[in-house]
Amino acid sequence: MATTTPAPIPSAAESNPRRWLALVFIGLAQLMIVLDITIVNIALPSAQQDLGISSGDRQWVITAYTLSFGSLLLLGGRIADYTGRRRAFLIGLLGFAGASALGGAAANFGMLLAARTLQGVFAALLAPAALSLLTVSFTEARERAKAFGVFGAIAAGGGAVGLVVGGLLTEYLDWRWCLYVNVPIAVIAALGWTALPADQRSATRHRIDVPGVLLAVTGLVAVVYGCSEAESEGWDSQLVVGLLSVGIVLLVSFVLYEGRRAERPLLPLRVIADRARGSAYLAVALSVVAMFGMFLFLTYYMQVVKDYSAVLTGVAFLPLTAGVLLSAGGIASRLLPRVAPRLLVVPGLLTTASGTLWLVFLEADTSYATGVLPAEILVGLGMGLVMAPAMNYATHGVRPEDAGIASATVNTSQQIGGSIGTALLNTIATSTTSDYLADRPKAPPVLRDGLVEGFSAAYAVATAILVAAAIAVGLLMNTPRPRRESGPAQDAPAAVHLG
Q1: Are 494 and 2 in contact (CB under 8 A)?
Q2: b/e per residue 61-89 (b: at least 16 CB within 10 A)
């Protein structure tokens, strides 16, 4: 196999002496993006009632964001590489804030839909710019591990924070504040403009790979939209099968075009062909299947089955966030410079799988302390071990001109994994519930038992996916333990030796 050895670069202190301050603002931007994935879910019932949105149309409030975000990430990452990551970061922040303000002031469904689409567009520029800025700011192994521990904790635990914040804002203020809250966060993050590493102007005139953009965007739109429709239409419907088939054909065509014909490819295949980075993308994509499923089904379990309020449901997710913070920020950041990444990612996936397995045995009358709490702690600890090293190695050893597209690729993995996982697990849950209720009386206790039966089936599948992911990553990610190089280049990233 090939050997990836990054060229010598300045030490972290020389490249960005204000890198720790920059981490604060980059982390805020990432938190805003991750919050928006779950915070709007809490606000949706109130928004639906306030704006008169039909039950058939309400899913578009979520889908409009995921479609534009997931499909434009690769383009956003390449734009950040070509035009400057700091510039892309600021444009993404201000655009996201403006779109959020528009959504908060929405007078009708169309206005809210337009705002959510714009949020996704600017998030597709902001997310890869933020991760690539982090990549170029932290180059020394130990500092990089700590920085990516913080970033990984935000990526894995921010969704649970969104549930808490969304519940509080919806119950005590108004659903519109679930969108307005992004404005002050974006303004504060934008104040860190001067702490970010300066953009390096290239003497080469870059041109966007237009055929690659068209193939990637249309392929990703088809896949993400197909998965979102699978929840309501079923996986065997003509619409879903058609969309997924077209999406797969377009994405395969994209890979073939990038590898054979593109002069300046949107996604150079060297980025994903590296086994360390490819395994990191796989780990992120498959781990979020469990994470998104847990948020979805536990939210319904606590609110519908256990009759928790929105605020109490959000608070009940806090142990998961605590587990992520402890694992990513405390354990993974200390071990990452010392051990091979798969020695963190594989145990992380298996720990997460043990948490979802615990939920398989959940019943309607199971107490929070014996049912939900242990599972949340296990999933939180596991996801922290997965996300910190996966985010690190997703951009490790890439050429400077590819940092943005590598960052976009890991974000795309997360979006695609979340879309497919949510649709797949929700289909399994609803069909299992329907089968359970088919020949039973529709009394409230039976309905609750039917819901829990569906959740259990979904968690069983999520567990199997996580175990399969652990096996795959264990076999593929053969990057050895990082080692410190002697001499003046010791602050550069350690070489990644493959095969």
Answers
A1: no
A2: bbbbbbbbbbbbbbbbbbbbbbbbbbbbb
How many residues make up the chain in this entry? 499
Residues 6+ apart with CB under 8 A from 431: 454
Return d(Cα 229, Cα 181) in angstroms, integer: 29
> The tokens 């997360």 sit on which residue?
414
Question: CA-based angle 267:84:4, to the nearest 5?
Answer: 45
Cβ atoms of 458 and 292 closer than 8 Å:
no
> What is the second-level CATH architecture of the domain 9-198+266-497?
Up-down Bundle (1.20)
* Inter-residue contact 394 to 284 (CB < 8 Å): yes
Please state, in angstroms and rounded to a whole number, the distance separating the CA atoms of residues 129 and 131.
6
Give 181's Cβ-side CA count (13 Å radius). Answer: 23
CA–CA distance, 89 with 155 (Å, rounded to integer)? 17
Task: Report which residue type is found at 146.
Answer: K
The H or E element spanning position 497 is strand 496-497
How many other C-beta atoms are found inside a 10 Å radius of the C-beta of residue 120?
24
| 299 close to 163: Cβ distance less than 8 angstroms | yes
d(CA 462, CA 467): 9
Query: What is the C-alpha end-to-end distance of the chain, expressed in Å?
Result: 5
CB 226, CB 281: distance < 8 Å: no
Tens-binned pLDDT, residue by residue, of the chain (499 aa): 444 444 444 444 445 677 888 888 998 998 888 888 778 877 887 888 899 887 667 778 877 888 888 888 889 988 888 888 889 999 999 999 999 999 999 999 999 999 999 999 999 999 999 888 888 888 787 888 888 888 888 877 777 788 788 888 888 888 899 999 999 999 999 888 878 887 765 545 567 888 888 998 899 888 888 887 876 787 888 999 999 999 999 999 999 998 887 778 888 888 888 888 889 999 999 988 777 777 778 888 988 899 988 788 888 988 988 898 899 888 888 888 888 888 999 999 999 999 999 999 999 999 999 999 999 999 999 998 998 888 888 887 787 778 888 888 888 888 888 877 877 888 888 889 988 998 888 788 899 999 999 999 999 999 999 999 999 999 988 776 665 543 333 333 333 332 2
Q: What is the pTM of this model?
A: 0.82
